[in-house]
Amino acid sequence: MQKYPSKISAGLVVFLLAIILGSSVVMISIREWIGLGINILVLVFVAYTFMTTYYVIDHEVLKIRCGLFVNKTVAINTISKISESRNPVSAPAVSLDRLELFYGQDKSVLISPKAKKEFIDHLLLLNPGIEFKTP
Fold first, then answer.
1. What is the C-alpha to C-alpha distance for residues 127 and 14, in angstroms, rounded to an integer?
2. Distance between CA 99 and CA 115 in Å, rounded?
3. Burial class (CB in 10 A: 0-12, 13-18, 19+), 20
4. Is 131's pLDDT higher than 70?
5. pLDDT greater than 90 at residue 7
6. Residue 53: enclosing H or E segment and its boundaries?
7. Considering the chain, what is the average pLDDT of its residues?
């Protein structure tokens, strides 16, 4: 079993912090404590999601985990293609430096392992039939 943490985009962190902290300053200045509490809860939730986004290759399955909402398992022998992507659509990835994995019948998932090369090499070792395309 090998765990691969998600890459975390500094730009995404700065963007989210600017919004949350900026609105928190306003909440403090107008003494809106409920709003500030909500901002703190959002910040904790975002941090938790970032810290619990990872991918595990365990024997012949890929387990994809992202916070409280994504807990997906993909059989590695069903993966047909991997391609690099910068697609910003919502996905279990906390970076825009992503990989799109195509598996099964017309299914795909976007992920962002920090160690992309090692991750891809590991998948190719388990399923040499995977087609890997670079842009």
1. 37
2. 11
3. middle
4. yes
5. yes
6. strand 53-58
7. 95
Q: Among residues 123, 117, 111, 120, which one has the least CA distance to residue 6?
A: 111
Structure tokens at 56: 């595990």
- What per-residue confidence (pLDDT) applies to 135? 62
> How far, in Å, CA of 63 to CA of 47, rounded?
21
CA distances from 112 to 43, 64, 69, 117 (A): 21, 11, 17, 11
134, pLDDT greater than 90 = no
Query: Would you state the structure tokens that stand for residue 125, as one six-digit string?
Result: 């070792």
Report the half-sphere exposure of 71 (CA within 13 A, side-chain side). Answer: 3
Distance CA 130, CA 120 (A): 10
Residue 125 confidence (pLDDT): 96
pTM: 0.89
